[in-house]
Amino acid sequence: MTTRPYGVGSFSVDWEQRYDFDRLRTERVRRAQEAMAEEELDGLLLWKSENVRYVTSLRCQIIAGKSSILNGVLLAREGPPVLLASGGEVDRARYMPWLGAVHAVPVMEQRELVEGFVRATLRPLLAEHGIAGGRLGIDQASIALLELLGQHLPGLRIADGDRPMQLARMVKTPEELMLVEEACAIGDSVTQRALDETRAGRRECEVAGDAMQTLYYLGGEMPHVVTPFVASGEHMAPPHRFATDKILRNQDLCFIDIGAMWNGYFADIGRCTVVGRPTDRQRQVYQAVYEGLHAGIDALRPGNTTEHVAAAVRRAVAGYGLEEHLFSLFIGHGIGVGANEPPYIGETLPGARPAELRAGMLFAVEPLVWVEDSGGVGVRIEDMVLVTEGAPRVLSRVEYEEALLA
Question: Is the whole-model pTM more than 0.90?
Answer without folding.
Answer: yes
